[in-house]
Structure formats: structure tokens, C-alpha cells
Amino acid sequence: GAVVSQHPSWVICKSGTSVKIECRSLDFQATTMFWYRQFPKQSLMLMATSNEGSKATYEQGVEKDKFLINHASLTLSTLTVTSAHPEDSSFYICSARVTATTYEQYFGPGTRLTVT
Amino acid sequence: DAKTTQPTSMDCAEGRAANLPCNHSTISGNEYVYWYRQIHSQGPQYIIHGLKNNETNEMASLIITEDRKSSTLILPHATLRDTAVYYCIVGGANSKLTFGKGITLSVRP
User: Is residue B109 predicted with pLDDT exceeding 70?
Assistant: First the structure.
């Protein structure tokens, strides 16, 4: 149980275009989802926290107009990288928490974004 | 500001126990100790968490010192598939996870 999927697993796009990444909880409803970014040989950095039906909370230094997050249902959150540039190339990972009272987060397999 | 400190790396022989230490001397009374691991190019995987008491599940055991300033994750019989970066994270029950650099465990044949 507690499986989180991401789509696509990898994507290559041209500079200036937008890319949407989906995160789905397959066998549970997630009240809260998180989006992380990981550059090569570095640790995960939290970008934003999203709760179903409300606006995402972004970490300091993360541009909310560039990284659009939508959490329209209890099983789906999307991250859209708008006007992508090469420096946005990274490994994007989502996670989901089952309820507000559970402690563990379940992570997706990640999406490798390459902007050319 | 890091809440936990871990060695950079360690290795162990396949089949032996892997004991991964973590220091969290500034942990507060309502904060938990979480352990996650990340195998190369995959999303992190939850392992275990604890507050005060030692915990055990099918993956590992977590030993927390009485003063709660440090803990040890124990993989009782390490396999090659346990080679990964292991993250020790301290946080409240509903808090976001802040990942440090973790410890790279290499299991050798």
C-alpha cells in the first residue's frame, strides 16, 4: 500500500516552454502533498507544500509564478514549470502524507527534467 | 541550520548488521526522529520513526538514547540492495521534512 506515482518519469523540453508533472497517490487519499527538487549530488530541497483544495505554500526563494502547483483532488497534485530554462533542469520528486495525523511521507519515483 | 549530524559515509559487509548513527542534540520534546533512504535516482523511501521508545519494523530497528540526543538505525542483515543514502530527520508529527546530506551506506559483497 501507500504507492505514489509520477508522470512523466523523464522529460526533455526546450527553453521557454512549460512542463507539467503529475503526482498521484494510487491507493490512498492524500490530504497533503509535497514537491521537492534535487540537483546532482545534492540533497532534496522542499519547494512547496500543497493541501487539497487550497493554495500551495512555497518555501523561501521558490518562485510561485514559475512553479505552479495545483492540488485539485485528494489523489492528484500537479507541478507546472513555466517558461523553463536550463537551470531548472533537475530531479523533481513529490511525496504524500496520508492524513494530518500520520507521520510518514510516501515518495514518488521522481521526474527527471532536462531543459535544452 | 542542521538539526541532525551524520557521518558522511560508511560501509559494511553483506549479511552483517549496519549501524547508522545520528546526533540530534537540540531535539525538542515533541519532535520525532525519522529515517528515510534514497537509492540512486529514485524517490526516498520511509524506513521508520520514533519518539522516545525503541522501534522495530520489518525493515529496521531504531534505537533512541534515553536523553534523545542521538539515535542509531540498525539494518540487521544488510544486503547489496541496502546500498543507499540514509537520512536522519527530526521534526514534529505534522511537520515538513528537511533533508540534510545523509550518510552513504555501501554494502560490500
Answer: yes
